[in-house]
Amino acid sequence: MTLSKLVLRSMRKNLKHYYLYFFALIFSVTLCFSFTTLRYNPTVQEALKESGTASAGFGAGGYILYFIVTFFVLYANHLFMKRRSKEFGLFQLIGMTKGLVVRLIALENIILFVLAISLGMIIGFFSSRLFAMILIKMLEVDMIVHLSFSQEAFKQSVIIFSILLVVILLQMTWLIRSVSLLSLFTAAKTTDERVKRFSIFHMVMGLLGLLLIVYGYYQSTLLFDAGKSDLFNNLFLHMLIILGTTILGTYFVFRYSVALIMNMLRGSKKGHLNITDVLAVTPIMHRMKGNSKSLTLITVLTGLSVGITSLSYISYYSSETNARQSSPYDYILLNNQGIEFLDRLTLENIEYEKETYDIASVMLDIKDLVDDNLKNSPLFSEETTTPVIPLSQFQQVEPSIQLKEGEAFVTSYVNILFEILPLKKEQNIVVSLGGKDVSLFIKDIREDYLLSSRAMYGGPILVVPDKLFEEINTANEQHEIYSQIGINLVHEEDMPKAEEIYSSLAEERQVVLNNKNYTQSSYEQLRENNIAIFGLTIFITAFLGLAFLLTTGSILYFKQMAEAEEEKASYMILRKIGFSSSQIMKGIYAKQAFNFGVPLIIGLLHSYFAVKSGWWLFGTELVAPLVITMCLYVMMYVIFMILSIGYYKRVIRESL
Amino acid sequence: MAVLVGRKIRKTYGKKTNSQEVLKGIDIEVNKGEFVGIMGPSGSGKTTLLNVLCSIDHPTEGIIEINGQNLRSMKEKALANFRREQLGFIFQDYNLLDTLTVKENILLPFSISKLPKAVAESRLKEIVELLGIKDILNKYPNEVSGGQKQRTSAARALISNPSLVFADEPTGALDSKSATALLTNLENINKEKSVTIMMVTHDSVAASFCSRVLFLKDGVIYTELYRGDKTRQQFFQQILNTQSVLGGDGYDA
Question: Key word Zinc-finger present in the record (chain A) (predicted)?
């Protein structure tokens, strides 16, 4: 029999083992190829022309993707090799040299890679169109995506996977050359575990792991605490500490805490275990040593990708609210500039509603409203110019609000300021009224959007009774922006026409702000800008998130397949002495819930605290984007879990 | 009273064109309190017969009844329950779970039954004293000797008070001292608690502990020997003689 014949035969015989590795390969090629194809797709490039950061984003995303894929393929290959070690041992036993065995496996792998790359590229070519359509949809651009085969993408994928093939071949050569014949036969057995007792050391380390995670979480809530004077100097250091403690903590939890908790649980039963203990608790406990590293990695990757995806989703999700904050009305006219906009709207028969604001300003010392421990914050500037509007005009949006004399409230206090410097209501503050100090009782801190936020320097607005407003207006220096007209369209379909008029009056609308010319953008313009920026970001992060997810899910699934095979003997014993397969499956469900559930839950917790600490830097809405992202992750994990349970079912059925 | 009755048991492996008949119509009856040995050369169908009788494998033809219950009429789940509650198993390679301690392994059959802990505990106490493994209860299988493992396995088989215990080459992996200890234990349990035991072995010494030995050859029962009042030594001689007629342990002479 020639070598090539032997290779083909052994490949055919091993198909059952190969298919897993083969799919891992195809899947990796598909991801890489469709991503690069997308990058060089003319339609996509056209749509992203305006965004300068687009190609940089694609570039960075591509590198991360290659990294994920490399890691994944190496891992899959490692698992696969371990399963076949006996076969390699046998080849050597019948007199093949190590060199010949290496050549044999190299040949197999080259065939596999060529097949996988061709198949993966075909699938990737078609799936790239789907991805392109999703991207175009996200960017809200009307375009038809044309399929085009990119030579550049082809070249890049071939290069990447050729390098990967070489690495794998080296890995295998090293593996086969470095191990003895005997250990090849037992490689599948010497894997993890082997029962050991649990000591005080384990207990201490287990507790330490839990403490480290809790400490990391606690630190993350303090990350942007303005009360600390060294906030911005040590921000990076703090982040590193949080990252370090949570990752180390996660490892300790998997390495020690899990076994510790389970050991206590088991100890309390005094030998009278139930079927779940027998099939889930004890095997997990004894495998934790070998599995802790990969579970830590999976957990951290899950946390990372959920976190990043959530943050970019928060940005995307907030594009509307963001735009609403910058321009609370569809159109805004400042200082009555470009007032002809209203006439033009009437001329075009466009119905609208308008609200007018008069704006005065006071010097306000916000210090009186913050907590004592925040008073030394470096973020804290002295008195700031704060816009003031009369209550009657505020009632245009919120008629129910009333103020007594000497009372006032603060509004438009949102987002970043709100998170870093929370204000307390029901405090007295002092404002100066033409050199004379007036004390005001701050009744409430609100979040309404009323005025163009740029024109108000992004700060809060003070609302006072009309009488006081008049006094302020006459006594104090005029605010740079002394009036605002807010216009909302009655019929949304008038939007395109109104937009046209609004931008044609750009010059007329110009005002002076901070000694510079400033032109207010319409709500729609702001929203479109945001979408263009964040649409691409979320697309790339979601793509990478998907890659992470499928990778971690597959690794968990592969590991469970291997475990199922290894534990087949136990299932055989149990079935012989009288456990039915459905009774055994009950234990397996618990085991799968643990194996998939715990990394997922800890990963989600990590991402929750990571996102929670700084989400307001990215957008205005936390709950919905975070929950949606997490639900998607949970769903995908459930699918992998079901696959894994199906595999166990088959193994158990075959075990008697 | 017959605990186990087998009638015209046949077992064929493989497909029609390439089939091999391993059991060729075996009739067997085991009474309560008996210690039955099954001997025969390799390939004679000993283990197949045992597997078929204990419901791990299905016969191609024939009827098997244990305690009057026909195994063929039972579904997988009912069979599993039946095995757990009525039968005990001891295997050559111990078949203990590595991840459980000795005590947990012995109590394994109770892990899905609702037996009160106190009852289980008292049965455990009795059985481990009988088998002399009280001191190793909290050890893991990889920390104890082969003989201790096999006694653990025996304890697990006996803990649910089975009406019938099947042992497949229980001494196959043991040194002679451990083997003798185990067999003495089994013999005592058989006599004192009148537990019915059926043991497959190719070791004549092991077989001499039985009260009756069946000889299997090429899928049929060749002959059977009763120990009666003979001493173990005399019975052993008799077994050896029969074996030499049969053609030794491995190949035809």
Answer: no
C-alpha torsion angle, residues B227, B47, A578, A265 (rounded to 10): 100
- Does B51 map to a domain? yes
Domain-embedded: residue B251? no
Number of continuous H segments (helices) and E segments (strands) in chain B = 8, 10
CATH code for the domain in which residue B187 is found: 3.40.50.300
Q: How far apart are CA B250 and CA B253, in angstroms?
A: 9
Q: How far is CA A107 from the centre of its chain?
A: 40
Q: Are the CB atoms for A552 and A640 separated by under 8 Å?
A: no
B225: helix, coil or strand?
A: strand
Cα dist from A339 to A43, A271, A332, A510, whole Å: 40, 85, 10, 11
Task: Count structural domains, chain B.
Answer: 1
A162-209: per-residue pLDDT in tens?
999 999 888 888 888 777 777 666 654 544 444 456 678 888 888 899
Pairing of strands A360-364, A407-411: unpaired
How far is residue A295's CA from residue A555's CA, in Å, rounded to a whole number? 10
Residues of B in contact with A273 (CB under 8 A): 100, 104, 107-108, 111
Q: What is the 3-state secondary structure (H, E, C) of A51-95?
A: CCCHHHHHHHHHHHHHHHHHHHHHHHHHHHHHHCHHHHHHHHHCC
Distance of CA A274 to the CA centre of its chain: 39
Q: Where are the alpha helices (DSSP H) in A567-622?
A: 568-576, 581-614
Give the pairing type, strands B196-200 and A352-358: unpaired
C-beta atoms of A283 and B99 within 8 A = yes
**Do residues B159 and B124 make contact, with C-beta atoms less than 8 angstroms apart?**
yes
In a domain, B253, yes or no: no
Question: Positive or negative, the Cα torsion across A160, A162, A168, A174?
Answer: negative
Helix, strand, coil in percent for chain B, rounding step 5: 40, 25, 35
Which chain A positions have a beta carbon within 8 Å of B80's beta carbon?
Answer: 575, 578-580, 583
Contact assignment for B83 to A576 by CB distance below 8 Å:
yes
Q: Which residues of A199-228 are buried (b: 16+ CB within 10 A; e: fewer)?
A: eeebbebbebbbebbeebbebbeebbbbbb
Tally of CA atoms within 13 A in the half-sphere of A173 that contains its CB: 11
Q: What is the mean pLDDT of residues B65-76?
A: 86
Question: Given a cut of 90, is residue A638 above it in pLDDT?
Answer: yes
B9 pairs with which residues across the strands? B26
Instruction: Tell me the DSSP string of A416-456.
Output: HHHHHSPBPSSEEEEEEETTEEEEEEEEEE-----S-TTTT
Tokens standing for A358?
């008069």
3-state secondary structure of A520: coil
Contact assessment for residue A172 and residue A109, using Cβ atoms and an 8 Å cutoff: yes
- Compute the distance between CA of residue A17 and CA of residue A84 in angstroms, rounded to an integer: 9
B84 and A579: CB-CB below 8 Å? Answer: yes
Q: Which residue in A has a C-alpha nearest to residue B141's C-alpha?
A: A195
CA separation, residue A318 to residues A328, A460, A520 (Å): 14, 20, 20
Structural domain boundaries, residue B102: 2-246
Enter the tokens of residue A512.
């002076």
- 3-state class (DSSP) for residue A216: helix
**Sign of the C-alpha dihedral, residues A307, A310, A316, A318?**
negative
ipTM of the complex: 0.88
Residues A358-385 pLDDT 10s: 888 777 776 667 666 666 665 555 667 7
> At residue B175, what are phi and psi to the nearest 5 degrees?
-75, 165
Report if pTM > 0.95: no
Q: Could you give the 3-state DSSP secondary structure of residue B132?
A: coil
Residues in B 136-195 with any Cβ partner in A closer than 8 A:
137, 140-143, 156-157
Please state which of the ranges A374-378, A443-447, A647-651 shows the lowest mean pLDDT. Answer: A374-378
- Does residue B252 lie within any of the structural domains? no
